From TrEMBL, chain A:
Organism: hydrothermal vent metagenome
Listed GO CC annotations: plasma membrane
PANTHER family cross-referenced by the UniProt entry: ABC TRANSPORTER PERMEASE PROTEIN (PTHR43370:SF2), SUGAR ABC TRANSPORTER INTEGRAL MEMBRANE PROTEIN-RELATED (PTHR43370)
Name this protein carries in UniProt: Nucleoside ABC transporter, permease protein 2
Compartments in which it is found: Cell membrane
Record key words, sorted: Cell membrane, Membrane, Transmembrane, Transmembrane helix
Topology class, membrane: Multi-pass membrane protein
Record field: transmembrane: 6-23, 35-56, 62-84, 91-112, 150-167, 232-255, 275-292
GO MF, one annotated term: transmembrane transporter activity
Pfam families for the chain: BPD_transp_2 (PF02653)
């Protein structure tokens, strides 16, 4: 493999992986307090459509990102209300959020364009690359890490801060405790309710922003099914990362990389049918899941928050 | 026991006329409890008498439906307090050690202790906090390693962590819910010492126990609950064991069981050279050979964590041995699954009630039929027979005095002791059905009387002896040496996964058993 090829694959991998990293870290926060939110796909796609529509109308990409975050957060709030307050089944509620999100996004895509028309096919404002002088011309990593848009750059902060927060601070300790056992946390004076709400909404905000990165930078514009199942890959990545934000990056780059290679191969005209190539990231997801559950026995004891998916009510016995 | 007259010490807790209702049950009705400074106060009562509920009210977990609470833990004068959450109670100086520990297994000792403590810094400094914990541990003689993960600790060590956690937060009242139920005799003695030294330093202690000897040995005063009401509060110096039992149960209790000579039947369960791995991939059971015959009780003694759990799992088909064979009533079941063992004649009373014994969210009726739903008359061609299920449930609930006896209530709503009775009822009923002709059924009972009150222990012991009398082969795992000695015909002592010896309880002293448990072979 020549150097240029590697450089360009890394560049696309980073670019494609950014939204995955953001949404995965958001979902890690949510699952770490014991709430499984399968609504990521719905929240991402709603973030994508509202983010693009806002940016198109106001000609301001940043406003698009903000609106996408708010929309994602509100959808997560619905999930929080259903599962924490009403103690509904988390899987059912999460799936409902995804169904609602994809349906609503496709509807909105038809009607929130100019004059109540469709958004599809419009070119709006998008994030431009901000090459960092000097660093961006480094061999190998320069393209990938230092010639990107500001959302990608934000990950340089988001990832280490999330990791540090989770493992080195008191709020992080409390957040992990709630996910391990809500009843234990409550009994030792760590309140459960507020934390579960807060981090579920945070996860939604991050998924929404991740969605807007797709429509405002990665594949600028709006098309039906823009997220293409990325929300589901996020759910798998959380497991792959064993609920650790730092490892989420590795996973996201890997998936971004597969995407990149697949694009390359298609561009170079292989004999492989496009549908097989398009499937490859998902096949990889399944393979990785099989692999980590088979090889890493400890995963279950150190990985999944023990209280994941379990509703909590103080005066009810477990 | 106490040097200063307890009466002269001031009250630090007064619970007046506390009432707490649950759907269909009044768990506490006008209960009054007074605790003095530096006092060790025992709380006694039958299973379901409302002890845990009362303590949950005192630690802010449950809101009472009536009555008031007055505290003087951080000030001189009693002052009416409403505890809206466990957090409030902690701030008021109340520390609770629950029956089921409130520890997070994947966290380290330090992390567990820092959880919810007032002065935990925003940016954690585990080294420094660990040092502070080690210092408190030293002061109160509660040795633990602050960096160890909780899942690596023995039950006794976990309990020390729980107590340390409360002391770290400056608790002035320590509540212990059945602290000795899960401890070995040595660990219980150590806990007794700890309680005394804490009390001497001014900490008040309320502890719940079913073991009357312990109450007499450790406590200054005792409050007895019966049916959710206060039956009496007495000075330990003024009462005997029989008095306490009578106050609890409302009748006289026999403390020793009569045991006729064993009439041995055929070999029922034979283990030959069994070796098995534990969950952490180390050998947990090492080359164990045991034979249990119909009509006898084989006791299994040993300090917890010496392979009892894995051995029982091998006996019940829950764990596949890596070497050796398991034969039940002449059939080689090595490597077969739990259902084959059940159908082959093995009943199992597991140690973990809610994890392996009961489905907490299901009603008592469904739990009762968990082992018999495949057979007539409970089901007929894959359809359940509601009427037969109800009859069976009511029969077993009455036979084992499960309270409250509503067959449609959720199993998780039962108190710990009553859950245990329900499991026993189901399994003993199963052994009755499993016995065919002269082929005895096998009953493997793990800690069968753990957490039971004296009345219920009587029921269970009678039931086990009755099984023996009708020819069942009974394996009983227990940490209570007195119980093992009274009930067993032979005792196998486990240490490090090996059988150190199989001894005759009549001719083996408690000390010798202790030596075997510690891993020394008798010469
Ligand atoms: N959360 C709950 N929901 C429903 N019923 C409950 C709940 N907690 C307790 N009860 C009921 O209240 C009564 C008292 O239970 P509690 O656990 O206080 O008994 P206990 O004295 O601690 O018994 P044990 O010695 O068996 O632990 C029981 O009848 C129990 O079934
Ligand atoms: Mg109790």
């Amino acid at each position: 493999m020549d150097l240029d090829l590697v450089t360009s694959i890394l560049a696309i991998a980073t670019f494609a992986g950014a939204s995955l990293v953001l949404a995965t870290i958001g979902e890690i926060f949510t699952e770490r307090v014991g709430i499984l939110n399968l609504g990521v796909e719905g929240m991402m796609i709603m973030g994508a459509v509202t983010g693009f529509a806002t940016a198109y109308r106001t000609n301001n990409v940043w406003l698009g990102v903000v609106v996408a975050g708010i929309v994602g957060g509100l959808m997560a709030l619905v999930h929080a209300f259903a599962t924490i307050t009403l103690r509904a089944d988390q899987i059912v509620s999460g799936l409902a959020i995804t169904l609602l999100g994809t349906g609503l996004a496709s509807f909105l895509g038809q009607v929130i364009g100019p004059d109540g028309g469709p958004l599809v096919g419009l070119t709006g404002p998008k994030f431009t690359k901000w090459p960092i002088p000097g660093l961006s011309s480094l061999p190998l990593v320069g393209e990938g890490f230092f010639n990107q848009d500001p959302i990608v750059y934000s990950l340089f902060v988001v990832v280490p801060v999330s990791w540090y927060f989770l493992y080195k601070t008191r709020p992080g300790l409390y957040l992990r405790a709630v996910g391990e056992s809500a009843s234990t946390s409550d009994a030792v004076g760590v309140s459960v309710f507020g934390r579960r709400y807060g981090y579920t909404v945070l996860g939604g905000v991050m998924a929404g922003v991740a969605g807007s990165h797709l429509s405002l930078s990665y594949t600028p514009g709006w098309t039906e099914n823009l997220t293409g199942g990325r929300g589901w890959i996020v759910i798998a990545l959380v497991i792959f990362a064993t609920w650790n934000p730092a490892r989420a990056v590795v996973g996201a780059l890997l998936f971004g990389g597969v995407n990149a290679i697949q694009f390359r191969l298609q561009a170079e005209g292989t004999n492989l049918p496009a549908s097989i190539l398009n499937m490859s990231p998902y096949i990889l997801t399944v393979l990785v899941l099989i692999l980590i559950t088979r090889t890493d026995k400890l995963r279950q004891t150190i990985g999944a928050p023990a209280g994941l998916g379990i509703p909590y009510h103080r005066e009810e016995r477990e | 026991m106490t040097t200063t007259q307890p009466e002269t010490r001031r009250l630090v807790v007064e619970m007046r006329d506390i009432t707490k209702k649950f759907p269909g049950v009044i768990a506490n009705e006008d209960v009054t409890l007074e605790v003095r400074r530096g006092e060790i106060h025992a709380l006694l009562g039958e299973n379901g008498a409302g002890k845990s509920t009362l303590m949950s009210v005192l630690c802010g977990l449950y809101q009472p439906d009536g009555g008031s609470l007055h505290l003087a833990l951080h000030q001189e004068e009693l002052c009416e307090t409403v505890l809206r959450s466990p957090r409030h109670a902690i701030q008021a100086g109340i520390g609770m050690v629950y029956q089921h520990f409130k520890l997070i297994p994947t966290f380290s000792v330090t992390e567990n202790i820092l959880l919810g403590a007032e002065d935990t810094p925003t940016v954690l400094d585990l080294k420094q906090s660990g040092a502070r914990i080690a210092e408190i541990a030293e002061r109160f003689a509660l040795p633990v390693d602050p960096e160890a993960r909780v899942w690596q600790l023995s039950v006794g060590e976990q309990q020390r962590v729980e107590i340390l956690k409360q002391l770290y937060r400056g608790a002035a009242l320590l509540i212990l819910d059945e602290p000795t139920a899960v401890l070995t005799p040595q660990e219980s003695d150590a806990l007794g010492e700890t309680m005394h030294s804490l009390a001497a330093s001014g900490v008040s202690i309320v502890f719940i126990s079913h073991k009357l000897d312990e109450v007499l040995a450790y406590a200054d005063r005792v409050t007895v609950l019966r049916g959710g009401k206060t039956a009496a509060t007495v000075d330990v110096a003024d009462v005997t064991k029989a008095d306490l039992a009578r106050l609890m149960v409302g009748r006289d209790v026999l403390f020793s069981a009569d045991k006729p000579d064993a009439e041995l039947g055929p070999d029922a369960l034979v283990l030959h050279g069994v070796t098995a791995m534990g969950d952490r991939s180390v050998t947990a059971v090492n080359n164990v050979s045991l034979t249990v015959r119909g009509g006898e009780i084989l006791g299994i003694a040993g300090v917890a964590g010496n392979g009892q759990k894995e051995l029982v799992e091998v006996m019940t088909g829950l764990r596949t041995p890596t070497a050796g064979s398991v034969t039940v009533r002449g059939a080689d079941l090595t490597g077969k699954s739990a259902i084959d063992f059940i159908q082959g004649g093995v009943a199992h009373v597991p140690a973990d009630r809610l994890g392996q014994g009961l489905a907490g969210n299901l009603p008592l009726t469904d739990n009762v039929i968990l082992k018999s739903f495949r057979s007539e008359p409970i089901s007929h061609r894959s359809f359940l027979n509601k009427k037969a299920i109800r009859e069976m449930s009511i029969r077993l609930i009455e036979a084992f005095n499960v309270l409250p006896g509503d067959p449609d209530a959720k199993a998780s709503g039962l108190s710990g002791g009553n859950q245990q009775k329900l499991i026993l009822a189901r399994e003993i009923d199963a052994t009755d059905r499993l016995a065919v002709g002269d082929e005895p059924a096998v009953l493997v009972a793990v800690y069968p009387t753990r957490g039971l009150d004296v009345g219920a222990i009587e029921i269970v012991r009678d039931a086990l002896l009755n099984q023996r009398a009708i020819g069942a082969a009974v394996v009983m795992v227990s940490e209570d040496l007195d119980e093992l000695r009274t009930l067993s015909d032979r005792i196998a002592v486990l240490h490090g996964g090996e059988v150190m010896g199989v001894v005759d309880p009549a001719s083996t002293s408690k000390d010798d058993l202790g030596l075997l448990m510690a891993g020394e072979r008798l010469s």
